[in-house]
Amino acid sequence: HTWDITSDSIAAWVAGALHQDLLLLKSTDGITGGNRLQERIAEPMKTDVVDPFFIPYVLKNRINTAIINGSDPERLQNFLNGMPVPGTIIGTTF
Question: What residues contact residue 13 under an 8 Å CB cut-off, 6+ apart?
């Protein structure tokens, strides 16, 4: 048993099967790299925010994905209302 696939990747699989975008709520603002928040990821990268299978899977299957901090209800509400919030977008559009 490994943690190579977690509930994050299962959520991505469900979103892909339903042909839907994915909003992933985490306890962090998104994915960081080089000591800064990555606003957009268009290629696989290593991170401890999601499992190793997740980013390559959503990119390969073109599942538009946003990762934001779900600990802040106002941030979630702003995102759902189309307002910009700190987070990471995976893919080329959302």
Answer: 57
